[in-house]
Amino acid sequence: MTTPPPYAKMRNANRKVDDEAVAHGILDQGLVAHVGFIAHDRPMVIPMAYARDGDRLYIHGASKTRAVAQTGGLPMCLTVTLIDGLVAARSGFHHSVNYRSVVVHGMARKVTDKVEFDRALQLITEHLLPGRYDEIRINTRQEEKATGVLALDIEAMTVKVRSGPPVDDAADHALDLWSGVLPISTAIGRGVPDGFTDAAKPEPLSFVAARMKFLV
After folding, report:
1. What is the pLDDT of residue 1?
2. Phi, psi of 54 (to 5 degrees)
3. N or C: which end of the chain has fewer CB within 10 A?
4. 131-137: Cβ within 8 A, 24+ apart
5. Contact of 213 with 82, CB cutoff 8 Å
6. What is the percent of the chain where pLDDT is above 90?
7. Rg (alpha carbons) of the chain, rounded to whole number
8. Lowest-confidence range among 66-75, 80-89, 148-157, 199-208?
9. Which of 36-45, 123-132, 160-169 has the lowest mean pLDDT?
10. With the CA atoms of 143, 148, 153 and 159 taken in that order, what torsion angle do they form, in degrees rounded to the nearest 10?
11. What pLDDT, on the 0 to 100 scale, is given for residue 4?
12. Could you tell me which of 123, 115, 114 has the C-alpha nearest to residue 145?
């Protein structure tokens, strides 16, 4: 894993995980990335859909949005966080959250090659719903014109993980107070058809694959 830049120094460095596989696992399981960039000399953070392709991330949005139109050739930061539990300690000071997070740094590049553009859109769609691209119609030229895609080659990643029970002060262990973890899990329910879909029509296989994604 590439060494993070100097400005990535962390207060809780003990929670950093130097394992690229852990980072990739978090990126592959997450659904939304928060993308940080500078526009008009102001810092911006926007939630966006994304997908990983090896050591490259793709994000997409409306072609005229600032995150797409004004960031090509500029540094970009992207974060994904998974929440696994609320950590309830015997004091407010030791309350915490069990989580897994990745912070990615790289240079944004606007995707203009048609083959890469199409592949990126497929990857982003199937990151959310595996196999969905084969179930839908192809994009129209007008839809493609209205869509912008950025590639972010991973130059540095910082991974942090917090797991396990609260770390109470030894003197507090004898207190008659509940202390432990309240687990949090992400689950995908059953599909709700719109008014134009036959209610008897079975769910597409991509919905089943999406549910399976969170059973690991």
Report:
1. 46
2. 65, -120
3. C
4. 131/205, 131/206, 131/209, 132/204, 132/206, 135/204, 135/205, 135/206
5. no
6. 77
7. 20
8. 66-75
9. 36-45
10. -90
11. 46
12. 114
Q: φ, ψ for residue 154 (rounded to 5)?
A: -70, 115
- Is the CA virtual torsion 74, 25, 49, 98 positive or negative? negative
CB 107 within 8 Å of CB 152:
yes
Is residue 175 very low, low, confident or very high in pLDDT (cuts 50, 70, 90)?
A: very high
Tokens of 35: 């993308």
- The residue with tokens 């719903």 is 129
Handedness of CA 84, 181, 92, 10 (dihedral sign): negative
78-104 tens-digit pLDDT: 999 999 999 999 999 999 999 999 999
**Amino acid identity at 95:** H
DSSP code string of the chain: -PPPPGGG--TTGGGB---HHHHHHHHHH-S-EEEEEEETTEEEEEEE-EEEETTEEEEEEETTSHHHHT-TTSEEEEEEEEEEEEEE-SSGGG-EEEEEEEEEEEEEEE---HHHHHHHHHHHHHHHSTTGGGGSPPPPHHHHHTEEEEEEEEEEEEEEEE-SS----GGGTTSS---EEEE-----------TTS-TTSPPPHHHHHHHHHT--
| Residue type, position 28, single letter | D
Tell me the domains of the chain and their CATH numbers: 6-167 (2.30.110.10)
Q: CA-CA distances (angstroms) from residue 73 to 40, 45, 67, 77? A: 15, 17, 12, 13
Torsion sign, CA atoms 6, 8, 14, 19: negative
